[in-house]
């Protein structure tokens, strides 16, 4: 068989069941079918959303699964009908596809696609079969891209070709965390120059929101986390003040209202709990304040909201991947990265081999990312 038709054996991190750590296994990766691409993953980030998958709080996941959705790599082979990439091209994979044909893709104001997990679970490829097996068992895909594998097979509309000069171990973050936070500020909130912003949660995504607020010309950027070790990096990226809610007796929303007079112009919830969504909404200014939900609150939970907060004119909105149409935007974001318009490298705290992936999750949980 020619190489591109062969099954590849390689390592991947498999989550066998909900609540269990990942286990690094040898897996078989079948060749790509029509409109699919097999990619050699060079680097992948760990996003908190992957931890939601392991905990079982991400909606509609099937086990055993290979998680991971922040990857960059090199095209190994392509199935019939693939036109946008060829073997050897550098690519970034993303968990929000852009088929380019559905009603949402055709709407210039939307970055949703009807092929997304929320409309059609992406645990199997579009033909409803898996390309992964391990110890004779079928393994499910995650968001169609399963980047915690040395090779993965994905539909063509979940990747984009990027500049050959891009360092894959750095730009993989553009596949989710960086783009989500940066876009939440510039696309979803549309932060105006001179405004005041508050960011709840200073993980990779929250720090990227800070970068987006800064580039938009915000004059006050208030960073909030219960882990004060996050404050130095937040300041380096543009935060003007940092606060730890645990240092105060009163709720953090009252602290923010006192600090700003009437509340902030834009607040961003980048943690994913009901309490912090309530606090973020209550922290924004009467009548004009905008609260953007970025954190993934566990599926099935309910957030009680005081209707007067909205009735009086505040806006509460959410964002998927920062509002970017991913296939169109990723190559442009990579160009901006290469032109040094932002420095997402500052988000990288550790680089580990795949065999140590559970250590990476421990670091994430300990807040040392
Ligand atoms: P992370 O775990 O690296 O960061 C979360 C931060 O929140 C940590 O620094 C932690 O100390 C802080 N925190 C926890 N509880 C807090 C509290 N009560 N008050 C203040 N700070 C608190 O996570 P991440 O990778 O940056 O992801 C953040 C969230 O964004 C996750 O829920 C993730 O699932 C979600 N996410 C959403 C999208 C999207 O498209 N909307 C994309 C990527 C990630
Ligand atoms: Zn993510
Ligand atoms: Zn679409």
From TrEMBL:
Record keywords: Acetylation, Metal-binding, NAD, Oxidoreductase, Zinc
A Pfam short name: ADH_zinc_N
Highest taxon of the lineage: Eukaryota
Residues covered by the Alcohol dehydrogenase-like C-terminal domain: 204-333
SUPFAM superfamilies the record matches: GroES-like, NAD(P)-binding Rossmann-fold domains
Keyword Phosphoprotein: no
Domain Alcohol dehydrogenase-like N-terminal: 34-163
Alphabetized GO MF terms: all-trans-retinol dehydrogenase (NAD+) activity; zinc ion binding
UniProt xrefs under InterPro entries: ADH-like_C (IPR013149), ADH-like_N (IPR013154), ADH_Zn_CS (IPR002328), GroES-like_sf (IPR011032), NAD(P)-bd_dom_sf (IPR036291)
GO biological process: retinoic acid metabolic process; retinol metabolic process
GO CC terms in record: cytosol
Family: Belongs to the zinc-containing alcohol dehydrogenase family.
Name of the protein in its database record: Alcohol dehydrogenase I
Native organism: Chauna torquata (Southern screamer)
């Amino acid at each position: 068989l020619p190489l591109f038709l062969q099954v590849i054996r390689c390592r991947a991190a498999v989550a066998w069941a909900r609540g269990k750590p990942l286990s690094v296994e040898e897996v078989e990766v079948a060749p790509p079918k029509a409109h699919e691409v097999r990619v050699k993953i060079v680097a992948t980030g760990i996003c908190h959303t992957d931890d939601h998958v392991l905990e079982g709080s991400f909606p509609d996941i099937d086990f055993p699964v290979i998680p991971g959705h922040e990857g960059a790599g090199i095209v190994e082979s392509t199935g019939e009908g693939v036109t946008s990439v060829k073997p050897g091209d550098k690519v970034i994979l993303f968990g929000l596809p852009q088929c380019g044909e559905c009603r949402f893709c055709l709407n210039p104001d939307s970055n949703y696609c009807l092929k997304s997990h929320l409309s059609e679970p992406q645990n199997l490829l579009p033909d409803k079969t898996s390309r992964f097996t391990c110890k004779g068992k079928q393994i499910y895909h995650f968001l169609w891209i399963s980047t915690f594998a040395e090779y993965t097979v994905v539909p063509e509309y979940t990747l984009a070709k990027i500049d050959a000069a891009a360092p894959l171990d750095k730009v993989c973050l553009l596949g989710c965390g960086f783009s989500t936070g940066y876009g939440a500020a510039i696309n979803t909130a549309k932060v105006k120059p001179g405004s005041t912003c508050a960011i709840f949660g200073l993980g990779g995504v929250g720090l990227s929101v800070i970068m987006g607020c800064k580039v938009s010309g915000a004059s006050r950027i208030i960073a909030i986390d219960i882990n004060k070790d996050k404050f130095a990096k937040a300041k380096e990226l543009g935060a003007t003040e940092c606060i730890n809610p645990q240092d105060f007796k009163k709720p953090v929303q009252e602290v923010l209202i006192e600090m700003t007079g009437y509340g902030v112009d834009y607040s961003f919830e980048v943690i994913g709990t009901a309490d912090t969504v309530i606090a973020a909404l209550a922290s924004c200014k009467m009548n004009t304040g905008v609260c953007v939900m970025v954190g993934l609150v566990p599926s099935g939970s309910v957030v009680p909201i005081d209707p007067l907060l909205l009735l009086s004119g505040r806006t509460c909105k959410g964002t998927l991947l920062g509002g970017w149409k991913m296939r169109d935007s990723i190559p442009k974001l990579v160009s901006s990265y290469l032109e040094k318009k932002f420095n997402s490298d500052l988000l990288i705290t550790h680089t580990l081999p795949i065999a140590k992936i559970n250590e990476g999750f421990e670091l994430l949980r300990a807040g040392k990312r």
